[in-house]
Amino acid sequence: VRVKEDFSEKAIDQYYDLLVQTYRKSHYTPLPRKFYSDIIKNLSEKRQLKLLLAYYKEEVIAGAAFPYLNGVMYYWSGGSRKEKEFASLYPNNLIQWEIIKWGYENGIGQYDMLGASIEGIKQFKLGWGGQLQNYQRIYSSKKLKLMASLYARLGAGIKEKIRRAVRK
Fold it and tell me: What is the mean pLDDT of residues 111-131?
């Protein structure tokens, strides 16, 4: 497995396909492809984002995007192929290792992996030696705060029903 940085249209398409596959497993839908494409292009032109793809035998099997600014880098989003033959290669771990090395070599003093509310994700992130941080969340209304709180505590099936109801 090798990791490569790439901002081409093909790379963005491959990255988005990985997001769709990964989100589908959790019954989520990523934002539209244009949203990711616009952000990736804009921030990469400003040298404020890394888009890394993991390849196995010339096939993209994982990818992740990392915006950075003022000495702080963020894990924005990522996805990977779900077939066992690829998962057993741990491409996400390799991508994390490569971005941490790059950050260290380029003076990035802080790496924020964002959100750890799902236990498996929390354990993965803590495995890199970090610390959990609480964030202040700001809501535009009491109703939105209540919905967000309930949403975080409910299972995926209920979450999908709420999403459908909110869209109507």
Answer: 69
